[in-house]
């Protein structure tokens, strides 16, 4: 195992992918707890499709991908939240509307410029080979911003996650913290798409919280367990990807699935069920 790790970290691109991936996994797992509890988890899927469209445009214009995808995905997150709150279009319908439109735009741009080549697969399923040093620096800065803002406003995010009506009654500006949650999610999606792809990035948001909720019941314990699970699953997934020459995004998702099944099996144990009923 140690020899495998030494061989892995001898490649600079794997070091960059590991650093950025662990930060993105941490950010997505923390935000994912609130998104899953608020039933906003599919917003990640919608934003990932927006990210696909923005990456396609950036590739066609030969512009740095993150410089295009981050602001576009952030604007899309705000748009989705506004449309959902207006109730003119239901939340799930607005996500489907924006995501399918963005996906169609991305495919059209690619087909008219570079053509349907391997870049399309990289955009859809991710690649750890495409992270430059500038991408890593920007990703680290943005990830630190996400973690800092989440830590500073943890109590407010907790309040709007569980009971928006009560939070509003106590003077909390619910719309502001919903916007903050959408903003942080958009940045995380944009950062993680290069490695996980638009079709798999949502797994980093959904799986760790759902897995943690099999055994943990408090918000704080779910958050901590989710963060630890996400980081461990990403690390193990990248190692498996390196050893067996598998796509990194798929490997990470498979490890998350295994963790979910393991936690579900533990939850189903007779002794565990009895303990939960007593509590």
Spans of at least 5 consecutive residues whose pLDDT stays below 50 are: none
Global mean pLDDT: 83
Strand content: under 5%
- The total strand number stands at 0
State the secondary-structure class. Answer: mainly alpha
Helical content stands at over 70%
End-to-end gap: 41 Å
Computed CA radius of gyration, to the nearest angstrom: 19 Å
The coarse silhouette is globular
Regarding quaternary structure, how should these chains be classified?
A: single chain
Largest sheet: none
* SSE sequence, one letter per element: HHHHHHHHHHHHHH
Describe the structure concisely for a colleague:
By secondary structure, the protein is mainly α. It contains 14 helices and no strands.
Can you describe what's shown?
It is a single chain. The model has no long low-confidence stretch (mean pLDDT 83). Helix content is 82%, strand content 0%. The chain has 279 residues and is mostly helical. The radius of gyration is 19 Å and the shape is globular.
Considering the chains and any ligands shown, give keywords for the structure.
279 residues, mainly alpha, globular, 14 helices, single chain, 0% strand
Please give the structural blueprint.
Elements: H1 2-8, H2 12-37, H3 43-61, H4 65-86, H5 91-112, H6 118-125, H7 133-152, H8 154-162, H9 164-169, H10 174-196, H11 202-212, H12 219-244, H13 248-267, H14 270-278
Helix pairs in contact: 2-7, 2-10, 2-11, 2-12, 3-4, 3-5, 3-10, 4-5, 4-10, 6-10, 7-10, 11-12, 11-13, 12-13
